[in-house]
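Entry:
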Amino acid sequence: MEKVFVLLHGWQRDRADWINFEKELSSKYEVISWDLPGFGKEPLIDDNWSIPEYANWVNEKINKKLSNKKIVLLGHSFGGRVASYLASSQPSYLSALILYATPSLYRPTTQIKRKIGVYKILKRILPQSFLQSFKSDDQKNVENTSLAKIFRKTIPFDQTEELKKINVPTYIIQGDKDASVRIEIANEMHELIANSKEVIVPNATHFLHLENPILFNGIIKKIISEIYEND
């Protein structure tokens, strides 16, 4: 059965991130990417959504538009979280999973826990203008937008139990210079997903596919060859 590669973009990104990658693969494979709801040209459906609702949206999209095809799902960051949650439901169409710079586990450091604790205390007595230093750039960017509630629900959403249910070959790509996803997260995800391989990329950041597309494309092509060999 023909394989289709479905690409899911990261937080506050859109399908344009994948344009060069799609061109690279489209000569040999069918490659599809979608804007997730609330990003790019896809309107937001509900500001109460979190990872499960986005996964359900992708699942419905695949069933409607790509029926009777085997899917290789590739997700970056937030898109990887959506992809891993969808994979945990073990859909029959899923052939393989590629999780790239994906924080599917909520493991705040001691420093972050302290920062959260201090913020909770200070927000009762100080105006918001004095608390901006406690917030991440992503949090600041979505403040007072329809994505704010989704962001707050998504960050602490832990997928430990869901990762254990993934039953397809899974590849975890992680840059060792990624400031957004700690390498320890990728390591633990590798331990939780039974049939997984971990690819640590030296000197790679959270946006390897944009900063060094030649290297990223090479990594994915090698993974694809493994997927087809083991099919």
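The chain has a mean pLDDT of 88.
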